Amino acid sequence: MKTEIGRISEKYTVRQFQEEDIPDIMALCLGNPDYYHYMNMQPTPENIKEVFTALPDGKTMEDKFFLGFYLENRLIALLDLITCYPDRDTAFIGWFMVEKKVQKKGVGTEIISSLLDFLQREDFRFVRLAYVEGNRESEGFWKRHRFCPTGVRLENDGYTAVVMQRSLIPVEKLNICNIPAIVWGEKSDKVYLFVHGKMSSKESAEAFAQIAAEKGYQTVSFDLASHGERIGENEHCDIWNGMRDLAIAGDYVFANWKEVSLFGCSLGAYFCLHTYRTGNFKKCLFQSPIVDMEYLIRQMMEWFDVPEERLAQEKEVETPIDILSWDYYQYVKTHPIRKWGIPTRILFGGKDNLQSLTVMRTFADRFDCLLTVAEDSEHSFMEKGDGVIVEEWLRENI
């Protein structure tokens, strides 16, 4: 790969750093004081020199690329890349920094986008990195490039590094009857239909699709009403629009794949329970599913002191969580889940405050679902250690 590094970017000249480049590297680093603030250290010629030979255990200098990106002989950005780490399918970005003067002008995005394209051509399947906890700008940059937390945190002297990863599996964006969607993964006869939850989007399928691709599945995800690319549309994310969209997405996957399985999260799982009661899915995975919406609505009425009589009179009452709707409440009461025949496995947080453990066990027992309870996890599975719990569960069950 060493002879190919010039192909990483068409716009910038890319070359390996030499020790005589340390003054230029120092100048770039000194122009980024915020970066070092979060690391509780300052750049010096000595610690920059150490980067030239810094390697993880088991790696050699053949795997290391400490690179400068130049525009008209001016150093614009630096990148420390380790190939085949922590496994042969993964490349690791150890350090990436852009000159302060050109930040927020698309330079970082240009470089990372071209790097990811290059690594995909080199047959890498994943890219991993770590940002310094608390550095919101760095965290936001990597999330915009579809890197997702792995749940791994590395404790270092003076700071904590949060490990993120994204896949390099093929991604095709399309519209399914005007619904923005993504097809993830190499061509396959098997697919998962991924239905996201509230305050999410089709892009949230990234980590799931990575694992599914390893097991030979493609993944199709799409934006629910008022989510993702559909924010701003004059449609609510309610049961009626949800069922309509899920029916359209379901027709699409069954028309294009031989074997179809289902994943639903939170509110998305509730929509699945209403739309796919008789669906011919191979299997189903639910994470933090809403299986009893009447229970949740009554909880919200209690939390925000909204008596049933008031809701009946006003029809809609806005709360800090969502709008309580009398029509929705009536639908939920008259349409409980009475039928569900798809083989289903559920991951539920023991500290979930939207559905009780009793509610979840009742549902699982009634429909013969395999229930896994993560005792210390909340509904969102976003706290420390939850990423590992979710990943392990997905790897066991996809």
How does this model look, in words?
The chain is 33% helix and 27% strand. The protein starts with 12 loop residues before the first strand and ends with a helix. The chain is elongated and about 75 Å long. The chain is an alpha/beta fold and 398 residues long. An eight-stranded mixed β-sheet has the order 8-9-11-10-12-13-16-17, sandwiched between helices. Strands 1-2-3-4-5-7-6 form a seven-stranded mixed β-sheet, with helices on both faces.
Low-confidence stretches: none
Mean pLDDT: 94
Please estimate the helix content: 25-40%
Order of helices and strands: EHHHEEEHEHEEEEEHEHEHEHHEEHEHEH
- Percent of residues in beta strands: 25-35%
Give the strand order of the largest sheet, numbering strands 1, 2, ... along the chain. Answer: 8-9-11-10-12-13-16-17
Shape: elongated
Distance between the termini: 34 Å
Given the structure, what is the number of helices? 13
Content-based structural category: alpha/beta
Strand elements, count: 17
> For the CA atoms, what is the radius of gyration?
24 Å
**How many strands, which pairing sense, and closed or not: the largest β-sheet?**
8 strands, mixed
